[in-house]
Structure formats: structure tokens, C-alpha cells
């Protein structure tokens, strides 16, 4: 995600944005990873840099599967679509873990 300042912002909105307390989110990429495909957060950041897409915030979610079987690709795709829709519509992001590029947890108010 990129944190953006709207084109019609006022001075107070700009001040909050530059202090890390405002703006809106725009999805820039979406990827699913199985637990065994990531060795560290730094590895995820490095992989995204190889893709050449700038981002400020990553949202993380986990799918548990059923009866010891990982979720199938349709379930993963549906979960990603729901996440993207939630971001694009300004919905509640509290069910996702949000981290900045340094891995610092973020909270949305």
C-alpha cells in the first residue's frame, strides 16, 4: 500500500499526513505466500523491491485451512479480493496486521 494525500487536501490534512497521521491507502500490489515461502520480513521487503513497486504499508492476514489442509487457491484469491475491497472502500482494517517498511506495527484510527 502507498499512503497518499488527497489532491484536495487542506493545510491541516497535509500537516497530519506529514506527521504520519493521515491520508488514504492505495493498494499497489497483492501477493499470497505460504508460511514456508518466507524466511523473514526482510526477505519480503527485498522481494518487493525486486518487483520495483514502491510501498509504505503492508497488510498481513492468515488463512487457517481446514482439517490440516491448507486453503485452496480459490479461497486465497477470495480473501485477497475482500482485503483489497476493504482498503479501496475505506473499510475496517482492524482484522489485518499492518506494518511499515521497517516491520513496525501500525494502528489505524
Can you walk me through this structure?
It is a single chain. The chain has 109 residues and is an alpha+beta fold. It has one domain. The protein is built from three helices and five strands; from the N terminus they run E-H-E-H-E-H-E-E. It has a three-stranded antiparallel sheet with strand order 3-4-5, with no helix packed on it. Strand 4 and strand 5 form a beta hairpin.
**Total tally of structural domains:** 1
Secondary structure class reads alpha+beta
In the sheet with the most strands, the strands line up as: 3-4-5
Span between termini: 17 Å
Short key terms for the protein model shown above:
109 residues; alpha+beta; 3-stranded antiparallel beta sheet; two-stranded antiparallel ribbon; 3 helices; 5 strands; 15% strand; globular
What's the quick description here?
By secondary structure, this protein is an alpha+beta fold. It has helices spanning 11-18, 41-51, 73-88; strands at residues 2-4, 24-26, 57-60, 97-100, 105-106. The chain has one domain (2-106).
SSE layout and pairing:
Layout: E1 2-4, H1 11-18, E2 24-26, H2 41-51, E3 57-60, H3 73-88, E4 97-100, E5 105-106
Antiparallel strand pairs: 1-2, 3-4, 4-5
